[in-house]
Design goal:
mainly alpha, two-stranded antiparallel ribbon, 2 strands, flat, disordered N terminus
Length: about 220
């Protein structure tokens, strides 16, 4: 399905939503938000939690920024965006504390640092401030889910190789020798580099196929 019936956009909303999943994935294409990407992805569950928290903040802040875009003076727009983002980050911060203190401690200060995430502020400035509320919210949601996907792909590999588990479930039994480097900071760079290589190869293959199709 390539559209949202009744919205009058005939596929535009679907494009806005899907943009961040693959074509402009925040982690593997735009390479934004690297601080939490490399810091919290020692396990898949941490990656999911951080990704969903960022997704909520992005979708909600993009929607509100778009809704107020004609009322916000240009001179204070960045400060206003930060206040809006910080409001939703505070909601997420208290929600995670209420749900799981262990998760809150595992994510540490990176929840509060969503306020300074260039991906979130960049979406508010570059997209939400120039589009209607629904496309802005869908774009923020798609970018957030793309960010979550990137975190899980990195965190899953690091947890599997570094602990022999996935989401806390043992995969290889007691005889597995963990790759300790994967749960250390260098492991994040190794896995990130590997996924960037995969994405680059896939994009190059698609571009060659497109060129060949045009020549044919």
């Amino acid at each position: 399905m390539n559209s949202f019936p009744g919205t009058g956009y005939e596929g535009k909303n679907w494009t806005e939503f899907m943009e961040g999943i693959w074509e402009r994935n925040p982690v593997f294409v735009m390479v934004l938000g690297m601080c939490p990407t490399l810091a919290v992805t020692v396990s898949a569950i941490n990656s999911i939690s951080m990704g969903l928290a960022t997704t909520f903040v992005m979708a909600a802040s993009c929607w509100l920024v778009s809704l107020l875009r004609h009322q916000i003076p240009k001179e204070v727009r960045i400060a206003t965006y930060i206040v809006i983002i910080a409001t939703f980050v505070t909601v997420v911060d208290y929600a995670i504390q209420a749900i799981s203190l262990d998760m809150y401690e595992a994510l540490g200060a990176y929840i509060q640092l969503i306020v300074a995430n260039c991906l979130v502020l960049g979406r508010a400035e570059a997209h939400a401030a120039r589009n209607a509320p629904l496309p802005a919210a869908l774009n923020g949601l798609g970018m957030g889910l793309g960010f979550t996907l990137g975190l899980v792909m990195i965190g899953g590999v690091r947890e599997i190789l570094g602990a022999g588990t996935l989401l806390g479930f043992s995969l290889f039994g007691a005889n597995f020798q963990p790759w300790v480097v994967m749960v250390l900071p260098p492991g994040g760079f190794f896995v990130m580099g590997g996924w960037l290589l995969v994405f680059a190869l896939v994009r190059a293959r698609r571009e060659r196929a497109a060129v060949a199709a045009q020549e044919t």
